[in-house]
């Protein structure tokens, strides 16, 4: 990029590397909850996302893992990241991952092991166990986890090369519930790709995550449940790119006191004297 090329024009010079694969888009998008398959496909295209996630168990439950559904996903022209949504134990997640690899022909797996159905919080013990086993079986694991640093270190030791901490509970739209914890995670793991997964409801929340130095965001509910899903997908894409550009530009540090933008040294003192 030369001095005359606008830095905001493209992030093609700033690829996201995930397991050796370069992605120019830092937005990932899910394929569930849309009012129709056509709206889902239009939303994915509007987002410019480099990865789409597919829940094998939930699509099976809907009877949508037939050849027609798989062909529609392939026609999107983006990388597929199957996930183990709906699994509550390491054994369930491992079995689902093996099925997903056979169906989608990819070693990538978004690993979800859920503790309970109210919060959909990751079950961290089963998550680490499943991550270790799947890595040993040749999978490239994308673990859905919390912002806990100790859990992050255990997942990395189990063979994960990236982490997907939640911002807030899945589908809640609450944004980043624990900014301190996320900042700490980013600071302590500077070389690890970190993707905010779950809880984002507004483009501004995605921009905030990217401004903190996170590498990508994964969206589903916020787009699928919008009044106009393709338009919301495009809005999130713009916010994610803007947040990344701001992070690269080096944001100013917050201050407790005002700092005048115009210098006062050398100006005459026009205040009246007693």
Structure overview:
With 274 residues, the chain is α/β, with parallel strands linked by helices. The chain has helices at 37-47, 56-61, 67-75, 90-104, 124-136, 149-157, 179-188, 203-211, 221-224, 229-249, and strands at 16-18, 21-23, 27-30, 51-55, 79-83, 108-111, 140-145, 164-165, 195-197, 216-219. It has a five-stranded parallel β-sheet with strand order 5-4-3-10-9. The N and C termini lie far apart (58 Å).
What structural class results from the helix and strand content?
alpha/beta
Q: Report the sheet with the most strands, covering strand number, pairing sense and barrel closure.
A: 5 strands, parallel
Q: How much strand content do the residues show?
A: 5-15%
What separation lies between the terminal Cα atoms? 58 Å
DSSP helix fraction: 25-40%
- Helix-strand topology string: EEEHEHHEHEHEHEHEHEHH
Give start-end ranges of low-pLDDT stretches: 1-9
Which of globular, elongated, flat, extended, rod-shaped describes the shape?
globular
Strand order of the largest sheet: 5-4-3-10-9
Number of strands: 10
**For the CA atoms, what is the radius of gyration?**
21 Å
Mean pLDDT across all residues, rounded? 89
Q: Report the total helices.
A: 10
